[in-house]
């Protein structure tokens, strides 16, 4: 196993099939198969402090990429918002948002404004005035949910995944900026996503809120 020096090369001794927990039965990402979903309803989601601006740090860790597929197809990119559990910080709730190409550059404008300063791994840059509400789609009433794992080592099976059915928009030039970043070998990032994992007996819920 290669928890520290892992990579995405299928032929590598540190590739995905050798990652910790790689043989688990609750691994992510998965294919969101529309034919296998169970319909459900629930109360609307509450996003605390998503409307409060804060400052943060963006880091090039040498790993990134779109991961889940919908009906077998990859989106251009995927955004993850990771939340730790209040009662148990080892449990995670991850909100996933697919990205599509368009003309609206608002969602990731702050991040893209500093990407040219973090081309190489381990570089970081401060960002001011981040508003998480901008990272969410307008339609927050429908989403998919399933139990899974972290998509990078140690691939711990501690994640409740919530993936919105509506994507947000990234421009072609913004996507090009993300794809200009270098991985840990100094090469431009490509195929930097974990292969789709088996669903096994897990249930994918299609949820619509009241």
Automatic annotation (TrEMBL):
Cofactor or coenzyme needed: Zn(2+)
PROSITE patterns found in the cross-reference section: ALPHA_CA_1, ALPHA_CA_2
The gene coding this protein: Bma-cah-3
GO molecular function: carbonate dehydratase activity; zinc ion binding
Matches recorded under PANTHER family: CARBONIC ANHYDRASE
Catalytic activity: hydrogencarbonate + H(+) = CO2 + H2O
One protein family per Pfam: Carb_anhydrase
Role of this protein: Reversible hydration of carbon dioxide.
Enzyme class at the top of the EC tree: lyase
Domain Alpha-carbonic anhydrase stretches: 1-208
Listed name of the protein: Carbonic anhydrase
Keywords: Lyase, Metal-binding, Zinc
Family: Belongs to the alpha-carbonic anhydrase family.
Domain of life, source organism: Eukaryota
Any single Gene Ontology cellular-component annotation: cytoplasm
Enzyme Commission code(s) on record: 4.2.1.1
